[in-house]
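retry 2 of 3: previous attempt timed out while embedding zinc ion. Reduced batch size to 1 and resubmitted. Inputs unchanged:
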Amino acid sequence: MAGDPSTPGIDDFTRPYWEAAAAGELLIRRCGACGRPHHYPREFCPHCWSEDVGWERASGRATLYTWSVVHRNDLPPFTGRVPYTAALVELAEGVRMMTEVVECEPDRLAVGTELTVAFRTGEDGVSVPVFRPAGPPQGQSSSRSHSPRSARR
Ligand SMILES: [Zn+2]
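retry 2 succeeded.
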């Protein structure tokens, strides 16, 4: 897959990340020295500079932090995808990542919207993490459970 300009940079260091993505798992890095996670993947901890950093599977849950609807992007492969929602999300683990929100009308998004990770495989065969709204579609509350009192005596 080398040479494709739309392929994210994959090298020996980031390979586990992309292999996990292909398997539907999101990985983050966590420092063994200070215990803090980070993203994007780096070979050392950006908080304490320790190199004692390992991969950890993220829950895949996130909340929306900020976003922007992109209507024009002349760079392939984005040209054919506009409009799309570029977003910064905060993972449940406490790290933020740049991504894209899918399967949701932009005007239904709000800060704090609960999201869950999904994966999109591009034409180059590389799966990239994107996020979609978590749980059932909003609008009608299905949580109204008036369970009739069981007439037990
Ligand atoms: Zn650290």
